Amino acid sequence: QVQLVESGGGLVQAGGSLRLSCAASGWIFSKSAMGWFRQAPGKEREFVGAASWSGGSRQYANSVKGRFTISGDNAKNTVYLQMNSLKPEDTAVYYCAAPYPVVSTTHWGQGTQVTVSS
């Protein structure tokens, strides 16, 4: 059974940083691409970034490009989302998902809340 567990969310002031983690069991991140998404209150879930480990490619939404970075630790089977220069508009529940692109069989974590105060 596949399980993705996000952690690392919290409350931070604007301009601050957080690092989210996505730990997987029953899934090997290095064998497929994965994605990070977020959903703010009253809004639809949106794409944040994606990582492909085979070619080392990364994709980021324009809204986070230059501020957010995806990395991974194969030994821990964990993916990270480093978020710097956070803005109040980054406030949302953040989810990891694999595989990416999203298909009907994509697995999702439970989400972790990020709140950025102004």
Describe this structure in words.
The structure is a single chain. The chain has 118 residues and is an all-beta fold. Helices cover 0% and strands 50% of the residues. The chain has strands at 3-7, 10-13, 18-25, 34-39, 46-51, 58-60, 68-73, 78-83, 92-98, 107-108, 112-117. The strands form 2 sheets. Strands 2, 4, 5, 6, 9, 10 and 11 form a 7-stranded mixed beta sheet that branches. It has a 4-stranded antiparallel beta sheet with strand order 1-3-8-7, with no helix packed on it. β9 (92-98) and β10 form a beta hairpin. It is globular. The model has no long low-confidence stretch (mean pLDDT 95).
Structural class: mainly beta
Radius of gyration over C-alpha positions, nearest whole angstrom: 13 Å
- Structure summary, number of beta strands: 11
Count of alpha and pi helical runs: 0
Q: Outline, from the CA principal axes?
A: globular
